[in-house]
Amino acid sequence: MTSIALVPVVPVALDDDQRRIAHMAASVLLDYPDEADPGRLGTVRGAVALLPRPVADAFVRFLDAAEGMGSRRLAEHYIETFDRRRRCTLYLSYYDAGDTRKRGTAILAFRDALAATGWDLERKELPDFLPVVLELSARAEGPIAGDLLASHREGLEVVRSALAQYGSPYEDVLAALCMSLPEIDDQTRERYVSLVTQGPPAELVGISDTLPFPQFGAAKEARS
Prior knowledge:
Layout: H1 16-30, H2 40-48, H3 53-69, H4 71-83, H5 93-97, H6 102-116, H7 130-139, H8 144-151, H9 153-166, H10 171-179, H11 186-198, H12 217-223
Helix pairs in contact: 1-2, 1-7, 1-10, 2-3, 3-10, 6-12, 7-8, 9-10, 9-11
């Protein structure tokens, strides 16, 4: 990636209902395209019409592009983008732990965070998958999902920047999501630059077990 400077989107004020709509829309659109459900894009289009103009416009730009591509081409683009490009992975623990032993503890922390909300993850997917966290944010009460998104904000910005560089229409979905989140602070900006220039952690002897996000239950006990 050649661009290092972070150009953040401008946050947009959303009420709780609008935030839930935005996060559910992003969850649906960032999940693997379902060729068996061609009507889902139209359902999302109707829902995001209730959002403030900048957020709605970003979603609509993606929806227009997705419909123009067609379901098969969109699915191929999804695989090429999110499954084959590390800077675009939607598994949030990668940006904190890389491919190190700490990754297992990070994933366990996500699982326990979901359990702490009473959320039952029925689908066969890792709990740090961004669409899962966004669905949790849209459906569950309490601050846990918001804390997870906030503590992985630099990862979201790395994905957004990479998608913009690759010219992917999915950049608009990440932009809409980031508009729904608080303004980034200097520490997040510094972590973003570090991720872009150095990449996620590499496996090191004696690597710290500290994870930079809230931990619950078994993950917390595993570190004690």
